[in-house]
Each structure stands twice: as C-alpha cells, then as structure tokens.
Amino acid sequence: MAIVDVCGFSFAYPGDGADRDAAWVLRDVTLSVEEGSFCVLTGPTGCGKTTLLRSLKPELAPVGKRAGRVDVLGIPLVIDGGTADSMAPRDSAALIGYVMQDPDAQIVCDTVWHEIAFGLENIGMPQDAMRRRIAEVAHFLGIEPWMRANTETLSGGQKQLVNLAGVLALRPRLLLLDEPTAQLDPNARRLFLMALERVNRELGITVIMATHAPEDVERMATQRVEMGPIGEPGKRADVERALLTRWGGRRALLNGPQPVPAIETQEVFFRYERTAPWVLRGVDVRVRQGSVHAFVGGNGCGKSTLLKVLSGIAKPQRGRLDNALRASQAMLPQDPKTLFACDSVAEELDEWRQRCGYAKADEAKMLERFGLAAHAAQHPYDLSGGQQQKLAFAKLLLTGARLLLLDEPTKGLDAQACADAVRIVRGLADEGRTVALVTHDLDFAFACADEVSMLFDGEIACTQPTGDFFVENLVYRPNGESRLFGALL
C-alpha cells in the first residue's frame, strides 16, 4: 500500500505578491512510496526537496500556487491544485513526523525533557503514558544524560537528536527528514543513521529523507528519487595532487616569518551560567592573518561557543583574547536566518549598503554569483536551507570584512555549491583576509583550510597544518572520494 502518493504535483512560491511572477519550484512531480520504505530524495540545492517534504505535512505546507494531487496515509491533501484540508491537525501531528533542516526552528521548550514531552502534551496524552514514551525514546537514542539539560546549551547536532526523539515519542507512521545530518559530526552522523535504520526496520516507520549525500544511506535505502543532478564523485588523491602546489605555498607561509596573529587566545575559559560546567577550558589558539583556520570536533565539544568568544559575542570569564581585526569582522551564525530582517532576497542584500559602502551593482553581482537572481523577489524564509546559507554568506561578503567567522558554512549545500564555497574562501585568503570556520564537513576543511584545530572536552587537542592533521588523525579524515572532490576537479 502506498503511504504517499503524489501525482503531477507542481508548486510555486509567490514572487513579489503577483501570481504572474511566481516561480515554479516543483513541476509535475509524481512519486509513490510504499509503507515501510526508506525513500531518499536527492538533488541540487534549491531543486524543491524541502518544498516537497513540507507539502506532505499539512501544518507545514508552504503558501503558494499548486497543481496536481497529493495523498498521504490514504488521505487527500491536495486535489486538482486545491488544498483538501481533510486531515485533522491532531492526526497530522501524531501520524506524520517531521525533522527540519534547522534544529533551532523546531526547539520550543527550555529543557530536553519538556521538549520531548511537548508534542505528547499537545495531543492530550496521560502523564503515565507520556513518561513511558519519553523514557523509551531517550533510551533508544542514547540521550538520557541530557534529559535535564537546557536546550539553549546544546550543540546543533544534539538539538537534532532531541527533535528526532520528540517526533518518535508520538509514534508516527511516516517520518519526514530534511537534511537531518547536516550539523552532526562524523561519528554522530553514523550513530544517527544507525538509529534511523532501526526506526525504519524495527519499528516499521516509513522514512522519506532529503540529503545531498545519498552514499551515506545507500545501504539502508529501499528507494531513491533524483530531483536533479548531484554530480559525480571524485577521488581525494586527485584533489590532493591538484592542490599540491598550493599546499606547498601554504606550508611556506606557515613556516616563514609570522605577522601579528589575527586572533590569539591564552588560557580562555567560558561557561554559559555561573554554576554550569565549563564549555571552554584553558583554550590556547592562534589564527594567522591571511589564512583559513578550521575548527573540528564532536558535537558539544565547544566549537560554536569558541567562535562566539573569538568574535566577542561571548565574553570569556578567564584568560586573554586578542582580536586584531575586531573593527572589521563579520560572522555567519549556525542559523543563517539570524541575519535576515527583510521581506525579500534583494532587500536583504541591500540592507547594509549605506553602512558598509558597497554599490547596487555589487548586490546584483552577488545574486548572480550565488545563483539567487531568480529568487530576488522571494521571501528569505521561502528559500531552501542551502539557499538561505548562500544568501547569508553573500550578505557577509558584501561587508568587505577583513575577518570572517563562519559557523558550518556548507550546511545544506550540494557538492557544486560546496566547491564554490571552497573557491570563495580560498580567494578571501589570497586577498589577505582571514577566515576562521567551524565545520563537520571534513572534505571541505581538507580542500580549503591552512590549519586545523581539533576541540575535545572544551580544549584544543591539537593544531596542525591541514595536510599533517589529516594524515595523522585516526577518526577525523576526509572521504576517499566524494562529490565535492568531483566538483573541484
């Protein structure tokens, strides 16, 4: 039996408010997913994966023009382009689970326990049954140690696991996931996907998952739907040979006379509350001017917190921080929507023009450079996660800052967009600008970073030139081949 049946479905977001300017994101999509399947959606950034997933969840369905038919769980949601409204909100909440691309967009409560209980409370579940379900999913996902933790102190990857727990507690028949591993470190990603496989095979829950890395779930997927080309893999060895000259230049830079560092810390300690454990403990790090410095490590080790401290957003309780470029810096937060304050993509790029002194022509060039020209009139929140990431990055580049601090800059991007990000970041360093970035994308770090620091338990475990770091690391290694490498060659 098909649990999802989509026939000739098309969707367009409104442009500047006039239907004639609407751009079709989906055209004549036909899809049938049998109950118990593990279906993987692939395609380039902006191809409509998120829009399709949201259209299968009534309360998240986007506003716009529709055509065709959508049935979920045997219930029509869209008939001949019109919304059917035939699934009750309570049924949708309990039967269709959704894990968003942005973990923070789904978190609504102050503690992990209350977050998992939130959906159960909304459907009126008795306390005893609720406690049992919470205990079951917490044990299933191995998150018992966090149950009393404040959700604001969790890393992005930890928040995503909490979101999954809250959905599973409702025992849905259909689970929709939009790039759920985008903010997970390599080990957490494997554990998450193993848990997802058990959800599908042991619990019999149908899974539809959008991803830019279908190879990660190839073993467990029973169905793959390609919504556009995603490129061919390339070998790391070929990329390494292509970058050999540049690496030699980087090593010469690192071994030569050293300018005043862009950022330097000495014995920095930081915690979010006075009685809370230290998030950063005795951090010593130096970010060289004109270099790309990548910070890697497991979820919750303190990477995003360190970036906030380096930028001055968070003040260390102990130790010393020197930032020679503080007067000319810009930061890309983990949630790109934090930078959005306008009603259209074009207005977002124009927002800081008078303050930063760039021209209208520069905005037009950024729209073309990041493939957003066709979306200039669209609301930023109607963009895909990858497109939002591009928009936020473009907005930062227009500032002309000498120091850029980037938190997960490739989150939600396809291989080609990641390759473009590599070229942009390296171009900034070649101009003499400095980039400090946090990433779980080891292929990206391998291709663009000069130095890599690994955080563990709030401390810098090591800092090495990129080539040396990846040769000597047992776990944190780039893939032998990947689509990013293919896009770079």
Automatic annotation (TrEMBL):
<feature type="domain" description="ABC transporter">
    <location>
        <begin position="263"/>
        <end position="482"/>
    </location>
</feature>
<keyword id="KW-0067">ATP-binding</keyword>
<comment type="similarity">
    <text>Belongs to the ABC transporter superfamily.</text>
</comment>
<dbReference type="InterPro" id="IPR017871">
    <property type="entry name" value="ABC_transporter-like_CS"/>
</dbReference>
<dbReference type="GO" id="GO:0005524">
    <property type="term" value="F:ATP binding"/>
</dbReference>
<dbReference type="Pfam" id="PF00005">
    <property type="entry name" value="ABC_tran"/>
</dbReference>
<dbReference type="GO" id="GO:0042626">
    <property type="term" value="F:ATPase-coupled transmembrane transporter activity"/>
</dbReference>
<keyword id="KW-0813">Transport</keyword>
<dbReference type="InterPro" id="IPR015856">
    <property type="entry name" value="ABC_transpr_CbiO/EcfA_su"/>
</dbReference>
<dbReference type="InterPro" id="IPR050095">
    <property type="entry name" value="ECF_ABC_transporter_ATP-bd"/>
</dbReference>
<keyword id="KW-0547">Nucleotide-binding</keyword>
<feature type="domain" description="ABC transporter">
    <location>
        <begin position="4"/>
        <end position="252"/>
    </location>
</feature>
<dbReference type="GO" id="GO:0016887">
    <property type="term" value="F:ATP hydrolysis activity"/>
</dbReference>
<dbReference type="InterPro" id="IPR003593">
    <property type="entry name" value="AAA+_ATPase"/>
</dbReference>
<dbReference type="InterPro" id="IPR027417">
    <property type="entry name" value="P-loop_NTPase"/>
</dbReference>
<dbReference type="GO" id="GO:0043190">
    <property type="term" value="C:ATP-binding cassette (ABC) transporter complex"/>
</dbReference>
<dbReference type="InterPro" id="IPR003439">
    <property type="entry name" value="ABC_transporter-like_ATP-bd"/>
</dbReference>
<protein>
    <submittedName>
        <fullName>ABC transporter</fullName>
    </submittedName>
</protein>
